[in-house]
Amino acid sequence: MPVQSPIYRRVLLKASGEALMGSQGFGIDVSVADRIAADIAEARSMGVEVGVVIGGGNIFRGVAVASAGGDRVTGDHMGMLATIINSLALRTSLTKLGVDAVVLSAIAMPEICESFSQLKAQSHMDAGKVVIFAGGTGNPFFTTDSAAALRAAEIGADALFKGTQVDGVYSADPKKDPKATRYERITHAEVLQHDLAIMDTAAIALARENNIPIIVYSIHEQGGFGEILRGAGRCTVVSD
Ligand SMILES: Nc1ncnc2c1ncn2[C@@H]1O[C@H](COP(=O)(O)OP(=O)(O)O)[C@@H](O)[C@H]1O
Ligand SMILES: O=c1ccn([C@@H]2O[C@H](COP(=O)(O)OP(=O)(O)O)[C@@H](O)[C@H]2O)c(=O)[nH]1
């Protein structure tokens, strides 16, 4: 069977932090990190350039501190540090597979990884490395969804993949409403207008302003990333 060429040249993958804990209640299930890494390795073998933003919800979310009466900014700093831990785990999994990967952090920690700059990111990606963007945007009150939209715009990504717990955008949260129906295609404007909470509104607005399609798919579906890159697979395409 002929290998179908990918429909995107450069993509940004937002991988759910929560997914990384697998069936555990907290932390990192290495087998899940290895599986996500295998999907990224497949994309690289197809010649697709891949940037990655990984969430931190498996370890820490800033709102948890705020809702317990603590300081939100400190909580968000802790959440951003969680994304750096996850990024290091994913780099380890990629390295095991022989995939050249680098972590660029929005928060400087030179003993551990390189600091983010757009030029550095471009140059690593041009050299064929997988670039893992750690530390979110580097600012409190943001999310890794927004960081993913921001980095997608900065690296000139053709698409932003949201690898999450569900297999697309639904008419309502499918975890709460069993009657919710899945969209094959929907526009950024419709997602915003109907308040479909698959991603935060800042991230969707930023992707819309920069004409970046968002592909929502299940990160639990092994090989799903590659399938979609070949123009097939189960997902929702958010595009104007
Ligand atoms: N309209 C919707 N369509 C799909 N998922 C939705 C929708 N509204 C809410 N969700 C929920 O959004 C979740 C994904 O967002 P989020 O919690 O940010 O996940 P992640 O851990 O991937 O960042 C899904 O698990 C789903 O339960
Ligand atoms: O630019 C950013 C990105 C993340 N965070 C913090 O990091 C946590 C983890 O990120 P997120 O909740 O987006 O992770 P995910 O839901 O994808 O697991 C957030 O709750 C925030 O506290 C932040 O302050 N600024």
TrEMBL record:
Domain of life from the UniProt record: Bacteria
Function description: Catalyzes the reversible phosphorylation of UMP to UDP.
SUPFAM superfamilies according to UniProt: Carbamate kinase-like
Activity regulation comment: Allosterically activated by GTP. Inhibited by UTP.
Native source species: Tianweitania populi
Gene: pyrH
Protein name as annotated: Uridylate kinase
Protein family membership: Belongs to the UMP kinase family.
EC id: 2.7.4.22
Region (Involved in allosteric activation by GTP): 22-27
